[in-house]
Write a structure and sequence with these properties.
Largest sheet: none
Number of helices: 8
InterPro entries: PAP2/HPO (IPR000326), PAP2/HPO_sf (IPR036938)
Domain Phosphatidic acid phosphatase type 2/haloperoxidase: 63-175
Strand content: under 5%
Membrane topology: Multi-pass membrane protein
Helix content: over 70%
Pfam families: PAP2
Low-confidence stretches: none
Organism: Streptomyces hygroscopicus
Shape: elongated
Number of strands: 0
Length: 201
């Protein structure tokens, strides 16, 4: 038998309020939010590619920083995934037995913290180091992603809030650390076959 932590005592009422609101909302709103929740992470990947593409025109150091953004995001995801295994919080849609827009994940697919929120927040923070404009766009998208995960019913509000916090902090630490080595990395990589990744033709 698998024992899991129940997060309903933290903000279960807020979760049911959100799910009830989703249930009363127009169909087109729910369809749009559900689509964003399910497929929106692809937008964050595209933003990182765009950041790298633009960075090549700025200089090798900025390009190296842009290439490091996905690494920071993967690190953030890893930390978030470890926290999931440690806390082992059951999904709210499983604990509270409510009707949700998205199918409830299987038992053992833990809820706290939200991977989607962590990935989105990590991308936003990492992109700030590459382009403030792209970082701002990603930040708005990250908040929308975090909110969508509660709206479709697969996370408590505290799951997404902590996911945003974990993703943002890990990405910030990773990018700060990388910035110390960016110039050295740029110099070394510019002398290799990877040079085209650092400068526009």
């Amino acid at each position: 038998m698998t024992f899991a932590f129940g997060g309903a005592s933290i903000d279960g009422s807020a979760y049911t309020d959100v799910v009830d609101l989703a249930g009363r909302s127009p169909g087109w709103v729910d369809t749009a939010v559900a689509a964003w929740s399910a497929y929106g992470l692809a937008v964050f990947a595209l933003l990182m590619v765009l950041g790298w593409w633009q960075a090549r025109r700025t200089g090798a150091v900025t390009a190296v920083t842009a290439l490091a953004a996905p690494v920071a995001v993967v690190l953030a995801y890893g930390v978030d995934a470890v926290l999931k295994l440690v806390v082992r919080e059951d999904r709210p849609c499983r604990s509270l037995r409510v009707r949700t827009l998205e199918a409830c994940p299987a038992p053992g697919d833990w809820s706290f913290p939200s991977n989607h929120a962590a990935i989105a927040a990590a991308t936003a923070v990492a992109l700030v180091f590459v382009s403030r404009r792209l970082g701002a766009v990603a930040a708005v998208a990250a908040l929308a992603m975090a909110a969508s995960r509660a709206w479709v019913g697969v996370h408590y509000p505290h799951d997404v809030a902590v996911g945003v916090l974990v993703g943002g902090l890990v990405a910030f630490a990773a990018m700060i650390l990388l910035r110390r080595w960016a110039r050295t990395l740029a110099r070394h990589l510019s002398a290799t076959v990877l040079r085209p990744l650092l400068a526009a033709p």
